[in-house]
Amino acid sequence: MSKVYVMDHPVVRHKIDYIRRKEVGTKDFRQIVGEIASFMCYEATKDLKLKDVRIETPIASMIGKELSGRKLAIVPILRAGLGMVDGMLNMIPSAKVGHIGLYRDPETFQPVEYYCKLPADISEREVFVVDPMLATGGSSVAAISMLKEKGADHIRFMCIIAAPEGVALMQKEHPDVDIYIGALDEKLNEHKYIIPGLGDAGDRIFGTK
Ligand code: PRP
Ligand code: URA
C-alpha cells in the first residue's frame, strides 16, 4: 500500500487557504501555487539518498554529501500541473520535465488523453507527477498508467488539494506510488468538484474563466 503524506506546515496551510478564496485573482493564484509547490517539493524529496564525497573548501578538506541514486523528472498533468513546475524547479533545478496532456470530460468525468512527451530516459528516473487537484483520481491514475507504459517505475504523486475518493482510487490502482498532499478535503460534489476545494485549478491559474 502506498504512503500518503498530508503537509503539516503552517505556511503551506496559510497559502492553500489563501488561494481557496474566490476573490484571489489569477496573478496571485499562479504565484502562490508555485510557492506551495516549492514547499511540497522540499517535503517530497526528504528521503532522497546521499553519498559521501570528498570536497575541498577554501580552508580544508572534508567529506561532504551529494545526492546519489536516480536522477529526477517532473511530469505535470496539463494544464493545471504546469502551475507547479517552476516551483518544483526552484528546488531541483537539474530535473528534466515531461508533459502529459489529459482533460476530464465534463459529462462523463473520465480523463481524455491528448499529449505525452517524456524524457527519453524516464525509466531510469525518480518521477514526480504534479497536478494541483486530485478529485475522482481518474486523471492521475491515467497519467501514471501512461508513465508506467513508458517504463517509469519509481513514481511519486504530488497535489495541492485531494478528495478522499481520489486518494482511495490512486491507492487501489497504483499502490506503489506515494502521494504527497497539501490539504485533504472533505468530499466531491455532484459535479465531481472538491468540497470545499478551490474551484477549477486550470481556469484559476490561466485566467480562462
Ligand atoms: C483538473 C485537475 C486534474 C483533474 C482532477 O484538470 O487539474 O487534472 O481535473 O480531476 P480528477 O481527479 O477527477 O480526474 P481538468 O480536467 O479540469 O483539465 P485542465 O487542467 O486542462 O483544466
Ligand atoms: N478539477 C479541478 O480543477 N477542481 C476540482 O475541484 C476538481 C477537478
Summarize it:
With 209 residues, the chain is an alpha/beta fold. 33% of the residues lie in helices and 31% in strands.
Helix content: 25-40%
- Which term fits the overall shape? globular
CATH architecture: 3-Layer(aba) Sandwich
Do you know the CATH topology? Rossmann fold
Tally of DSSP β-strands: 13
- Roughly how many Å apart are the termini? 38 Å
Unreliable stretches, pLDDT < 50, 5 or more residues?
A: none
Biggest beta sheet summary: 9 strands, mixed
**Share in β-strands:** 25-35%
| Overall SS class | alpha/beta
CATH class: Alpha Beta
What is the alpha-carbon Rg in Å?
18 Å
Mean pLDDT: 97
Element-by-element helix/strand order? EHHEEEHEEEEEHEHEEEH
Ligands: 1-O-pyrophosphono-5-O-phosphono-alpha-D-ribofuranose, uracil
Number of domains: 1
Q: Count the helices. How many? A: 6
Explain what you see.
Strands 1, 4, 5, 6, 7, 8, 9, 10 and 11 form a 9-stranded mixed beta sheet that branches. The protein has 209 residues and is of the alpha/beta class. Helix 1 runs antiparallel to helix 2 and helix 2 crosses helix 3. Helix content is 33%, strand content 31%. The chain contains 6 helices and 13 strands. The longest helix is centred in the first third of the chain and has 19 residues, at 26-44. The structure holds 1-O-pyrophosphono-5-O-phosphono-alpha-D-ribofuranose (PRP) and uracil. Residues 80, 133, 135, 193-194, 197, 200-202 line the site of uracil.
